[in-house]
Amino acid sequence: xxxxxxxxxxxxxxxxxxxxxxxxxxxxxxxxxxxxxxxxxxxxxxxxxxxxxxxxxxxxxxxxxxxxxxxxxxxxxxxxxxxxxxxxxxxxxxxxxxxxxxxxxxxxxxxxxxxxxxxxxxxxxxxxxxxxxxxxxxxxxxxxxxxxxxxxxxxxxxxxxxxxxxxxxxxxxxxxxxxxxxxxxxxxxxxxxxxxxxxxxxxxxxxxxxxxxxxxxxxxxxxxxxxxxxxxxxxxxxxxxxxxxxxxxxxxxxxxxxxxxxxxxxxxxxxxxxxxxxxxxxxxxxxxxxxxxxxxxxxxxxxxxxxxxxxxxxxxxxxxxxxxxxxxxxxxxxxxxxxxxxxxxxxxxxxxxxxxxxxxxxxxxxxxxxxxxxxxxxxxxxxxxxxxxxxxxxxxxxxxxxxxxxxxxxxxxxxxxxxxxxxxxxxx
Length: 428
Known about the structure:
19 helices, globular, disordered C terminus, DUF6361
């Protein structure tokens, strides 16, 4: 008797957080050197739900369900003996997609091009959380638990074209019913990351269905008529510049921007301190001292130019939004952030204030309290030796780069895209 499962895996949220940390170490620009990642991720999840730093192309939100729908069909005829059998079968299917996608008309963003059979983090794992957040995966379980319950309970009844979320007998589906009608007859022999019109509309509807059409910046921008030229930050988009965003999204983006801009100074100071200590210890990378001194001065100019926005910044509301996304923000994290904001925004010249003894002591103490013994570069020579000239030195964009790439795919059906996403996974 076929059945399905719709129970809640309470460890999935914790597991996702752990994977976000792992992702940050794969991407040098997103490493959480000073322990502000919990706040960063709170805004990233609010503005761009379902995204991660190592997603590459929107088509994976369809390819992975098609893989599993095919396996569910196969398992109705011959049930798997163990969850390991399910995982191995899925892995074979996903690895087989690499060559097909790599040799397509739009190969950029193919996950696992270099690693192939040795790929450690499969696309299904990279996109698992997102498929759930977007309502493509209908069961709220971890990937491993999904494998386990396919063995224990078997595959659900086959999807019917045009079906609702439940069939006539009330049995829940594991995947969105529309996926079947979207699956091309050429799958899997001929595939591309280029979306069809129907695939584009399906993904738009899924994004806009996340707690309402205007609930996130991702949902608002998914309603755009066409893609835009690449932008460095979300607040540069015309909807933000023109003030046409829904009030809640506008408010969240404004807080995110202020946080990104002001805390960028702490990251630059941290790297400046590393550059000075590295040269003093190893007599190398002296040019990085001049580089980061110039970057701190440039940052100071940006803060001065935007001082009116910071004067009216409601930091109590800022923390309310953050706590609403993650009630477990550590007190030490909040204290460090508040201390840096106070320091950076009270001096006449932020660029000078940011390099003061008080500022350096704040950053030094934060790294020591945030990292395990032996990992703090400012106090441990072995850890310092691993510094290559930049450590978390980029301004926070809250996954805008990845989200912009996904939206470009979705808003450009039938069009081959250009360069790969910055976070393309090759050997994950």
